[in-house]
Amino acid sequence: MSDLEQKVDVLIIGAGLAGSDAAFYLAERGVSVALLESKRLKPNPAQKIPHFAELVCTNSLKSLDPDSAHGLLKTEMKGLGSLILDCAYLHKVPAGDALAVDREAFSQEITQRLSAHPLIQVIDREVANPLLEAERFQAKHTLIASGPLTTPALENWLKSELSPDDLYFYDAIAPVVDGETLDYSKLYFKDRHKHVEGDEVEADYLNAPMNKEEYERFIAALVSAEKVAPKDFEDYKFFEACLPVDLMAERGPETARFSCMKPIGLEQADGTIPYACVQLRKENLLGSAFNLVGFQTRLKYPEQIKVFRMIPGLENASFLHLGSVHRNTFLNSRKILSYDFSSLKYPNLSFAGQMTGVEGYTESAATGLYVASQIWRKLQGLESVRWPVETGIGALVNYVMTAEKPAPSNLNFGLLPPVQLTKEQRRKKSGLKKVKKALAAERARTVFQEFYENSRA
Asked: Which residue in 143, 210, 234, 326 could disulfide with 214, CB within 3.0 to 4.6 Å?
């Protein structure tokens, strides 16, 4: 141990969303933490900025609606004192009913807060053996939150020590365009679910409408464009909720029009609905950059420029970042972890974040808080505790630990137990789905509050 390093209670490997939230949660409760991160020494291909908790794929943390799955998850994260959520609200950019952020300002804020905390040692280091690092810091507990793009050295250790199963899926990143290079005469601002009256308030999403002929040409170009091929030893297994737009095009000419390019709710000024529509979301408050919503892609860089400039208004677009695909690894958690996400083989070693088998920014951060709360209990001499499946976090953990076939999942109401409806509610045919979600969300909030109050050390 160098002079700059000190003995700590908890060692955390990885300063992504889960690691950052876990470190702050513990430090705020008087626990000393060493936070090790390798990106400033050796960034992976998907990382673009040197700061922590980088949002790689999109700048959106999804819905703010309290009756949505992600809304109830945010309620629970807020109750746990989430650093991620606090910084997200501080650097929020317009995105309708979604929580989107200025990526760089968001990550800078998190990095600064973690680095300034008196109980957190932030150290730039690549870890090859977490057990040796734990000995180095004399840590009582170790948390691996290295994310889906875990370094090869640590991934090799995980395979040899914990999980010989090579479980993985591929994720794709959407491109970002320079706002000054767009032709706004062909574009219009409108939110799909938020209708603004008059000219006083500007909508958050910029829309590029297509007629049938333009759409069909665009889809044909996506299909014929040259893609980045998997290497001989790879097999693309994409997360179904985050498919590359070119893969959607290959699945059928109408697939994208019923997904990321659906025109529903995007009437133009004359009241007509386009045949298809591409939505662009602000990357920052200035609106100087926009990302193409749902346009993750496998296309090679020159092909992306050629094909995406076929979108009306993007004919002369300059791309600040182009899309890409990357390999996301995750554990067979059901096989190797306990319900508190500690290792069955090494009980003082825990895991959090996307590598446990959840998908999404808020889900990853929430598991960081979940595991940190379990470690906190253990440090107080208490047993770990199972979370009610009626809560968002409890439902996620239950899914990861019971799914027959490991496959990453976002939080959705299908993971929560069904709600009980009254006879009067069951008689209503229209709006029944919305009623069920509202009831499940209200139940989750009530159960979480009762559970949190009763389980705090």
From this structure: 210
- What's residue 320's pLDDT? 82
For the chain, the average pLDDT equals 88
In a 3-state reduction of DSSP, which class is residue 440? Answer: helix
Cβ atoms within 10 A of the Cβ of 54, count? 22
Contacts by residues 259-263 (CB-CB < 8 Å, ≥ 24 positions apart) = 259/294, 260/293, 260/294, 260/295, 261/210, 261/215, 261/294, 263/209
**Rounded (10°) angle between helices 103-116 and 83-90:** 130
Structural domains for the chain: 10-167+330-455 (3.50.50.60), 171-327 (2.40.30.260)
Give the model's pLDDT for residue 1. 55
What is the secondary structure of 251-304 as a DSSP string? H-TTTGGGTTT--TT---TTSPPPSEEEEEEESSTT--EEEETT----B-HHHH
Q: With beta carbons less than 8 A apart as the criterion, state whether 10 and 32 touch.
A: yes
Whole-structure pTM value: 0.74
How large is the greatest C-alpha to C-alpha distance in the chain, in angstroms? 70
